TrEMBL record:
Location of the BFN domain: 5-136
Protein name (database record): BFN domain-containing protein
Domain of life: Bacteria
InterPro entries xref list: BFN_sf (IPR036104), Bi_nuclease_dom (IPR003729)
Gene Ontology molecular function: any one: nuclease activity
Length: 164
């Protein structure tokens, strides 16, 4: 049975006010549902550079990956945040190489940075969206649900607080 995927867009990139770690906020394009994913500083910078269309004097790692794929006549078709295991998200990069489908395991932050550079869609497995909400609810973790509601209601100015 195929996995149902929900198309997402990057709603914003910001700093978590509690942990002071960057958060990529993905938003369902068909609803207000959001999925926050905490990422490392370097990955957040790679995402921010592309979101802001900032040119760098030399290719950064995710630019290199895009260029490598192009050099091998491969195309990044989509990225999917595919699993949530023990509070860790997993992603898959879907590529086409000469008509053959190739999948590559990746961290969501790397997959998102590559998706931005490859101009391809970002998806989250429906099960991951449901489980991330259940984990927040089931653990009695009021803070996680409050954070989700807070993220859903942020305006564009508040979403852009991440600074490189």
């Amino acid at each position: 049975m195929p996995i149902e995927e929900v198309e997402m867009q990057i709603r914003g990139l910001m700093m978590d006010p509690v942990t002071n770690m960057p958060i990529v906020v993905l938003k369902d394009i068909a609803s207000d549902q959001v999925l926050p994913i905490w990422v490392g500083l370097f990955e957040a910078n790679a995402i921010a550079l592309e979101l802001e269309k900032t040119a760098t004097p030399r290719p950064m790692t995710h630019d290199l990956l895009r260029n490598f794929a192009r050099g091998l006549n491969a195309r990044v078709e989509k990225v999917v945040v595919s699993e949530l295991r023990q509070d860790t998200f997993y992603a898959v990069i879907w590529m086409d190489h000469a008509g053959e489908r190739v999948t590559i395991d990746a961290r969501p932050s790397d997959a998102i940075a590559l998706a931005l550079r490859s101009d391809c869609p970002i998806y989250v497995a429906r099960d991951v969206l449901n489980r991330s909400r259940q984990v927040a609810d089931g653990a009695g973790n009021i803070n996680a649900e409050e954070l989700r509601k807070w993220l859903e209601n942020l305006n564009d100015d508040e979403m852009g607080r991440y600074k490189m």
